[in-house]
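Propose amino acids for all 429 sites.
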């Protein structure tokens, strides 16, 4: 197995320019594809997840070009449903691409097959399919019921004014419905059954839909009214830096005394994961903000404080808090993280297993994890990453305890941050 040995480090300082947000990048790509007119997209994330989205859009008849030597793209929208009516799409393990394209292709009037890697075929999608079928979508399971791969046939669109989707497994189901709803050509109300998790990601969706000319009316988190409208290109749009990726470097600033500054997100960010900084502050870190940057260093105390936190609003960045718990006094409890179970891997189980390798005492439940640090972290732990980019990036922070650590399959970070190891090495001392 490919691996990377990280040497013991005792400090971190420097400035990091973040790659573009995966969540924003893939939403913008789909919106630009469905819109009327050409869209100039600046600072698009260059990663495995965005590449599969770009390849899928091209297969669906969407023309795009990349400016040489940059992360800027020009995408010509199709002004509605995709022009290619028969295609087979391979979407890797990209959840944002798979869920949103499931909804968009289901309402595009064609014959499509959507598939991915084996792990994607283990990630549930039944709640989204059930909602689409309420609208008349013809979606077939090509393997196990409730899971990809999927086969689409032209929808027999029903004149229903309301559709209900469950909100307690993944907010990407709601996002997919909202993004695709304008393809119906009429107003539709999307109701959420149960508690909606990962609400800030839905905020990103609504914000970007508005940038493309479709303003959704909402009733709290219970229902959303999508008007009869056509997406229109804003002309040009820039992708923010990835706030989830920022968490590793801000955490490094707290653990390694800092300061570490991240550029690309700040107080003006539309991403919910910037609230990770608030959790860091509660743990005793010192944060400062600009419109497009955040800086972190260890505060007055010699050590971070344990916290008890509901992490519904920062599910991805909460993984970094589980690592920060290794450097805190007492037991840290992270709650309302059931969505970890259906991500790139079962992240609660994976995190518990790997934290124990470095000496932590861990209790895991259906939707929570409790971490009590050891007196000294175990050196030379061999960390498995489960083909999960966030597991790899999280456990890089263990080296800041002054102990070496081996990361198996380090290349899995290419999903969202292909240059992570070079950037991380540039701030560690």
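Proposal:
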């Amino acid at each position: 197995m490919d691996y990377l040995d990280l040497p013991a480090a005792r400090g971190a300082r420097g400035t990091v320019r973040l790659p573009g947000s995966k969540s924003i990048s893939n939403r913008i790509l789909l919106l630009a594809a469905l819109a009327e007119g050409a869209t100039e997209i600046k600072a698009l994330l260059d990663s495995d997840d965005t590449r599969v989205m770009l390849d899928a859009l091209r297969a669906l008849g969407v023309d795009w070009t990349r400016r040489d030597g940059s992360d800027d793209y020009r995408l010509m929208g199709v002004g509605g449903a995709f022009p290619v009516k028969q295609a087979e799409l391979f979407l890797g393990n990209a959840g944002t691409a798979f869920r949103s394209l499931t909804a968009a292709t289901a309402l595009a009037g064609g014959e499509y097959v959507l598939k991915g890697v084996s792990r994607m075929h283990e990630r549930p999608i039944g709640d989204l399919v059930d909602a689409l079928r309420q609208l008349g979508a013809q979606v077939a399971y090509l393997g196990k019921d409730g899971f990809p791969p999927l086969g689409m046939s032209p929808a027999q669109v029903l004149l229903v004014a309301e559709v209900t989707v469950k909100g307690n497994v993944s907010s990407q189901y709601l996002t997919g419905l909202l993004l695709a709803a304008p393809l119906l050509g009429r107003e539709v109300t999307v109701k959420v059954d149960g508690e909606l998790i990962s609400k800030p990601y839905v905020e990103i969706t609504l914000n970007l839909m508005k940038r493309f000319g479709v303003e959704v009316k909402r009733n709290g988190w219970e229902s959303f009214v999508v008007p009869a409208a056509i997406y229109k290109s804003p002309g040009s749009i820039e992708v923010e830096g990835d706030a989830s990726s920022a968490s590793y470097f801000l955490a490094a600033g707290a653990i390694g005394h800092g300061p570490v500054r991240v550029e690309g997100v700040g107080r003006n960010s539309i991403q919910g994961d910037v609230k990770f900084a608030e959790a860091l502050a509660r743990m005793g870190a010192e944060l400062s903000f600009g419109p497009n940057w955040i800086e972190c260093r260890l505060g007055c105390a010699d050590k971070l404080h344990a916290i008890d936190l509901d992490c519904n609003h920062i599910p991805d960045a909460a993984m970094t808090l589980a690592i920060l718990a290794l450097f805190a006094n007492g037991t840290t409890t992270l709650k309302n993280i059931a969505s970890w179970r259906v991500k790139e891997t079962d992240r609660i189980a994976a995190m518990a297993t790997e934290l124990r390798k470095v000496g932590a005492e861990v209790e895991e439940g259906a939707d929570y994890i409790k971490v009590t640090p050891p007196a000294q972290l175990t050196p030379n732990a061999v960390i498995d990453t489960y083909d999960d980019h966030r597991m790899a990036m999280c456990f890089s922070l263990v080296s800041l305890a002054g102990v070496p650590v081996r990361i198996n399959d380090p290349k899995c970070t290419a999903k969202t941050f292909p240059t992570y190891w070079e950037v991380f090495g540039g701030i560690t001392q």
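The first helix runs from residue 22 to 34. Residues 83 and 241 are 32 Å apart (CA to CA).
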